[in-house]
Amino acid sequence: MAEKLVIRTAHIEDSESIMTLMAEFAAYVDMTEKLVSTKESIEDQVFKEGRAKALIAEVDGYPIGYASITIHSPHLLEQKAYS
User: Fold this and answer.
1) Contact of 15 with 42, CB cutoff 8 Å
2) Range of the domain at 29
3) What SS3 state is found at 47?
4) Dihedral (C-alpha) 70, 76, 82, 83: value to the nearest 10 degrees?
5) Can you give the CATH number for the domain in which 31 is found?
6) How far apart are alpha carbons 22 and 40 in whole angstroms?
7) Which of 1, 18, 27 is nearest to 58 (CA)?
8) Which of 15, 43, 49, 56 has the fewest CB atoms within 10 Å, i.e. the most exposed one?
9) Integer CA distances (angstroms), 46 to 40, 56, 59, in order
10) What does the alpha-carbon distance between residue 73 and residue 10 come to, in Å, rounded to a whole number?
11) Exposed, middle or buried: residue 29 (CB in 10 Å: 0-12, 13-18, 19+)?
């Protein structure tokens, strides 16, 4: 059976998956001690405060990756293209 890859906008419900993926990558590059994010900080900063935008990559509904962009410019935060 063919696997189905989906890349979609991340939602607050994805915070735990994003945190898990971040922790797995930090362990892979031997930088676990540098990881300061938590599920709660992702929820707050990305989804509630809108400091970043995120995408989730899934295969057959299982998260396999994420991408994020941090937005520092107040002008960009106001642009509808980033909403």
Assistant:
1) yes
2) 5-82
3) helix
4) 100
5) 3.40.630.30
6) 14
7) 18
8) 49
9) 10, 13, 23
10) 21
11) exposed
3-class DSSP assignment, residue 59: strand
Q: Longest C-alpha distance within the chain, in Å?
A: 46
Which SS3 state, helix, strand or coil, does residue 21 take? helix
**CA 62 – CA 66 distance, rounded (Å):** 12
Q: What is the pTM of this model?
A: 0.79
- Per residue in 4-62, pLDDT (tens digit) is 999 999 999 999 999 999 999 999 999 999 999 999 999 999 999 888 899 999 999 99
Number of domains in the chain: 1
Q: What is the DSSP letter of 45?
A: I
